[in-house]
Amino acid sequence: MYFNGQIRLEIDNEALRIHVPPLTGLGLIGFTTGKHRIPLTSIRKIELAPVTGIKNLVQALQHSKLIVVTDTQTYRLQLYNYLKVGQPDHRIGFRSAFGKPKTQAETLIAEAPLVKALSELTRGEAEFSSRPTDRTGPLANHFDLTKHRGILLLLVLLTGLGTYALVDYVLLTEFLILGDLPLWPFISSGLVAGALGVRLGRGAPAAERFGITALLCAVAMLATFPGLQRYTLLVSPEPQTVDFQNTETAYFTNPQYPDIDQRQSNIPEYWQSFPAGDVYTFNLH
């Protein structure tokens, strides 16, 4: 039996049994998940697909595939990270891989225990080949975000907006917006951030460009909430005191203003100290 965390592969003279839980996330990057039983006599081709476009050796090994082609289906498995029960750990870590050439990936893959076992059991029955796969994109090129001025500016904006949203939200926890929030400020801030991200991210790989843009949009919309509160406090005149009646625990009403609902507050004991029917004074801006 071969295993890698929750993933198990069993090989005998009759079949290859695969157990890859869907929650491992391997399906998102093109690997087979689920439970499968593959009779060895149904295997027509076994192909090694080592990744050659990734500079980092460990990442190249993780993304390389063992492709098993049968009469009816094609299975794609990781081929290097599986340990054989009772055998020493052959895997290479980030520290030991440092400085080693990526071309060594093909050699390591060919010597992996899983590959050797399948090769021996299907010898003479299935075609066995190796076809390197060039992978491009952010993992392949190791794009340096700090060398792209537009992306660097987006990261600064992202950090600034995120810090402001967190700090001002905490500082304004004692203030409550009454009534329904307008949607247009949130939509506008998201659209502006999106347009800015697409514009400044030109020339960067699509993954970084649109990933950072999406984060910027989300953070900009989050920062809009404390921004509305802060703007209201800055432009409003001196607060006026208004009496609200406590109609039930943590729920206050005044016919001329929106209701104040504190029933989901994290200090229920405080609000329970006000008897129903009493008048409570709030400062409104």
Rounded to the nearest angstrom, the radius of gyration is 30 Å
Strand-residue proportion: 15-25%
**In this structure, how is the largest beta sheet organized?**
5 strands, antiparallel
Q: CATH class of the largest domain, please?
A: Mainly Beta
**Fraction of residues in helices?**
25-40%
List the helices and strands and how they pair.
Layout: E1 2-4, E2 7-11, E3 15-20, E4 34-39, E5 43-49, H1 57-63, E6 65-70, E7 74-78, E8 83-84, H2 94-97, H3 104-110, H4 113-121, E9 127-130, H5 138-141, H6 149-171, H7 184-200, H8 206-235, E10 240-248, E11 251-254, E12 257-261, H9 268-272, E13 279-284
Parallel strand pairs: 5-9
Antiparallel strand pairs: 1-2, 1-8, 2-3, 3-4, 5-6, 6-7, 10-11, 10-13, 11-12
Helix pairs in contact: 1-3, 6-7, 6-8, 7-8
